[in-house]
Amino acid sequence: MRILLVDDNKTNLTFLTKLVAKLEGCVALPFDNPVDVLGEMPGLNFDIAIIDFQMPNYNGVELMTEILRFEGYQNKPVVFVTADGDSAVRMAALNAGAIDFLTKPVNPLEFQARMRNLVALVTAQNKLADTAEWLRTEVEKAILELRAREEEIIERLTIAASYKDAETAKHTKRVGCYSEAIAAAYGLDRQTCSDIRLASPMHDIGKVAIPDAVLLKKGKLTEQEFASMQNHTLAGSDILRESRSSLLQMAAEIAASHHERWDGQGYPFRLSGERIPLAGRIVAIADNFDALTTARPYKEAWSVERTVSHIRERAGSQFDPLCVDAFLKALPAIMKTMLENREEPAGEITPRFEDLNMLQMAI
């Protein structure tokens, strides 16, 4: 236990230092000038402070007030040594944060008794603080473990969906990365961006409920088939929404809303504007970008330049204008992800010459 001693009278300081030396497990840190004490801040390590009230430059209350300005010392117990019996002086010290007084001349037996009690109190407080820190660490570990399990569940569900549609796995990975980039450019905090990246790959999880004849059809869907396909948004929400996991709840929200339109002409609920969850508005753009720039048996891949123009033109109708702005800002990151995740043989994503030029210009 380190005990700070501050007294401008060197005789008194030596006396207090000897008394501290008799306390088991205690070490004295003697100072005869309050200015020197402040000069050691904030690196001065002590557990208890014993401060003389009457000193030059700073009296005891003034010194304690300066010490307590430093965050690491705000809970340190302070005892005043004073020959002044004036109640106003004692009230000033108590109001400043002192917990006890010693009256000059200091009685050695009284000093040792009071210090033993105070040392025991500080020791108990330190143990309690250590326990609180241990509990905090354990809670953080448990949260990280739960988070890892949630991420694994999402990954397994995404893999399960890919068994029905092989293109889904590649598509969902890219959409997750694109969505995270847009969310970051939008200004969302890092945790929310990460959540969107993890949750967005399940935006099409409801396709497991779509008949194969519709889901795997190579040609254009009929009106009835398209209506059936639209049900994947509701199916995805139904699969995920009852989960207690915040990630899966976000995934359910995205599944239900990523085909809504800013102008209210989307599906399944014809939501408009900010009634559409922000995560759904972000994923709508990421999903659209990947779908257009990806080749399918029934269509060729669009160039990035054409796709960006398409999305920009639909700001305020199909897409949230602010999310479109974020998408344009995020293009360098999106293009980097796109190029890193193209598949062989070429045809899944085949960036064209103008796409590569656009990437270089964006970077």
Automatic annotation (TrEMBL):
Domain Response regulatory: 2-119
Domain HD-GYP: 146-343
GO molecular function, one term: phosphoric diester hydrolase activity
Kinase keyword on record: yes
PROSITE patterns membership: HD_GYP, RESPONSE_REGULATORY
Keyword Zinc: no
Pfam families the UniProt entry points to: HD_5, Response_reg
Modified residues (4-aspartylphosphate): D52
GO biological process per UniProt: phosphorelay signal transduction system
SMART domains: HDc, REC
Record's keyword terms, sorted: Kinase, Phosphoprotein, Transferase
Protein's name in the database: Histidine kinase
Organism from which the protein derives: Metarhizobium album
